[in-house]
Every structure is written in structure tokens, then in C-alpha cells.
Amino acid sequence: QVQLVEFGGGPVHAGGSLRLSCAASGFTSKYFAVGWFRQAPGKLREGIACISTNDANTFYVESVKGRFTVSRDAAKNTVYLQMNSLKSDDTAVYYCAAKRYTWHIDPTRYEFWGQGTQVTVSS
Predict the structure, then answer these.
(1) How far is CA 47 from the centre of its chain?
(2) Is the dihedral of CA 63, 69, 36, 20 positive or negative?
(3) Cα-flanking dihedrals φ and ψ of residue 54, to 5°?
(4) For each successive 10 residues of the chain (123 residues), what is the average pLDDT?
């Protein structure tokens, strides 16, 4: 059974850091592209970062580039999202998702989803 579980969210002050984890089970995550997405209240879910199969490539949207870093620990079957210099605009529910083959920033391309973890940045 394929499962993704995110954890590591919570409240943080602006300028602070959090590291989100996405633990995979039921499949070997390094053979899947993994994306990070977020959804703020009243907004559509947006892709913010992704890592390709075998970690060959990473991609970030402009709003998080230079502040967020996606990485993978294949031994732990876990993908991370290190978030630094957090802003109030980063407040959202954060999700990880996995897909076979090529990576993509479009959430509709992803097959497997976690349940999400809330990140709240206070100014």
C-alpha cells in the first residue's frame, strides 16, 4: 500500500526555519519524482518544489527559490523540504506527492499524496 506521511509543520516566526519530512512507504521513493505543494486558505494548491527520480534534478518556483531546498535520503525513503527565511505568505498546508517517471510542478500530474501538514508563519 502506497503511503506518504508529512510531518514537521507548526508555528514559526517570520525569518525562522522549518524542515518538513515526507516519509514514503509501500514503494521506493527514489524511483519516483516527489513534489512539494502548498495550499493557503481560499487559494488553489500550488507546486513549489520537486525532485526528480534518482535526485538528478530539482526545481523551485520563484517565490521560494533561494529559501527552500528539497532533498532526499534514499536510505530512509524520505524526502525533505528545508524552509528558511520564512515569510507570512508561506503560511499554508504543505503536501508532498509522488509520481512515476518525469518530475512536474503541476499537482494534477501526481498520483500519490500525503495528508498535509500545517505551517503557520507569524510576523
Answers:
(1) 8
(2) negative
(3) 55, 20
(4) 94 98 88 95 96 89 98 94 98 96 91 97 95
Q: Decide: helix, strand or coil at residue 88.
A: helix
Residues 6+ apart with CB under 8 A from 121: 11, 12, 13, 14, 16, 86, 87, 88, 89, 90, 91
Task: Confirm if 5 and 117 have CB atoms less than 8 A apart.
Answer: no
Q: How many CB atoms lie within 10 A of CB 78?
A: 18
Question: In the prediction, which pLDDT does 26 show?
Answer: 86
| Look-up of cell digits 508529512 | 6
Q: Are 77 and 25 within 8 A, CB to CB?
A: yes
Rounded CA-CA distance 68/81 in Å is 7
Q: How many CB atoms lie within 10 A of CB 26?
A: 11
